[in-house]
Amino acid sequence: MKSEAQHNVTEFYIYGLSEIPELQLPIFITVLLLYILIISGNLTIIVVIWGSSHLHSPMYILLLNLSLIDIAYTSNILPKLLNILLTERRFVSYVACMVQLYFFIALASIEVILLAAMAYDRYVAICQPLRYASLMSLKHCAGLATSAWVIGLLDPTGHMTFVSKLTFCASNHINHFFCDLSPLLKISCSDTYKVEMMNYIVGTLLTLSTFLLTLISYVLIIFAILKIKSAEGRYKAFSTCSSHLTCISIFYGTIICLYMRPASSYYPEQDKIFALLYIVLVPLLNPIIYSLKNHDFKDGVKKILHKLTL
Fold first, then answer.
1. Residue 98 near residue 163, CB atoms below 8 Å
2. Domain with residues 2-309, CATH architecture
């Protein structure tokens, strides 16, 4: 009877970023400011693209979807982290933990597919410009975006099926700042082989396949750019995809380092830093690097501001 009771974990204790009392307020203020910047930056992207008819093209439709994902991605994790930092209430229910894990995996899956679709869009624009209208029509773009959402939302089904069968009789303390897969497997007293195999299979089929598609797209793009005779032409072509290349380097680099490995190699403090890179840094950088040097987007901002001032 005692053993059965130990298995029925109803809540988890989240360590957070730090348990030192003096650091809670400074970390809270920092995370809150970053969260506000992420939400405001990505909302700006969505509003400007939605409200500017000249931005209703495949590249910007995919960017709009990416901003939606970044808002959902951070909102799945940072509000709870802020609550922990402010109130010191570190417990989260079992159900809430599973819901957070599901959406974390789902939204990450959608993002990798969208990043691959954006790489393909840049490949067609640079390497097949005469066929761009047919290969990347709004209909095809809508199909890619819809497929990303559907596949992403279905992707965690296998993970959650096996995770829901795990028991946590040894501990309910998660040494992380959210309910991630690796720390959950670390504290389980069940055999985690099936969950880990599911992680590797899905990682191979989805993460690595989309990464390879993105990589191939950029190899072909680079070869096409090198064939351009004028330096100005090469710079202009490369500038259209350099921002996307920066984001995918950070995102895929951290994802592959963190999840394409055995659960036994989980190192809490190091993994928290890596997790912050793709949970906070990428959504923060996306609005900046995709719009900072984009003249069409700047024109869209001016038009939106002009409408608001009328």
1. yes
2. Up-down Bundle (1.20)
